[in-house]
């Protein structure tokens, strides 16, 4: 029997159903994370997050990387 649990997202407080007992039906199924994303989630939270927050974290990390890359390029251009 599948183990489904009602939860509130610790990041946004949205309610969702965690379906760890039937992972292919869980709202997080199919999402993939690189090491930086996994670390950010693990360091900030100790429970499941809703799909929207997981996607937002992925976007925030991607945006942060783009900003850092832009700053590196600007630094290189300033030294020329």
Give a verbal description of the structure.
- With 80 residues, the chain is mainly α.
- It has one domain (5-78).
- Helices cover 48% and strands 10% of the residues.
- Strand 1 and strand 2 (15-18) form a beta hairpin.
- Helix 1 (35-44) crosses helix 2.
- Pfam families: Cys_rich_CWC.
- This is Cysteine-rich CWC.
Main sheet: which strands, in order across? 1-2
Unreliable stretches:
none
On the 0 to 100 scale, the average pLDDT is 91
* Main sheet properties: 2 strands, antiparallel
Shape: elongated
Q: How many individual domains?
A: 1
Order of helices and strands: EEHH
Summed up, the helix count is: 2
- Chain oligomer state: single chain
Secondary structure class reads mainly alpha
> What is the alpha-carbon Rg in Å?
17 Å
Strand content: 5-15%
The CA-CA distance between the termini, in Å, is 65 Å
Number of strands: 2
Helix content: 40-55%
InterPro entries: Cys_rich_CWC
Organism: Solitalea canadensis (strain ATCC 29591 / DSM 3403 / JCM 21819 / LMG 8368 / NBRC 15130 / NCIMB 12057 / USAM 9D)
Protein name: Cysteine-rich CWC
Pfam families: Cys_rich_CWC (PF14375)
Which characteristics define this entry?
Cys_rich_CWC, 80 residues, Cysteine-rich CWC, 2 helices
Short description:
It comes from Solitalea canadensis (strain ATCC 29591 / DSM 3403 / JCM 21819 / LMG 8368 / NBRC 15130 / NCIMB 12057 / USAM 9D). This protein is mainly alpha-helical.
């Amino acid at each position: 029997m599948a183990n489904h649990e009602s939860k509130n997202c610790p990041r946004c407080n949205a309610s969702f159903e965690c379906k760890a007992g039937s992972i292919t039906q869980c709202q997080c199924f199919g999402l993939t994370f690189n090491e930086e994303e996994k670390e950010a989630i693990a360091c900030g939270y100790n429970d499941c997050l809703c799909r929207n927050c997981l996607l937002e974290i992925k976007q925030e990390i991607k945006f942060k990387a783009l900003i850092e890359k832009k700053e590196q390029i600007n630094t290189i251009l300033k030294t020329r």
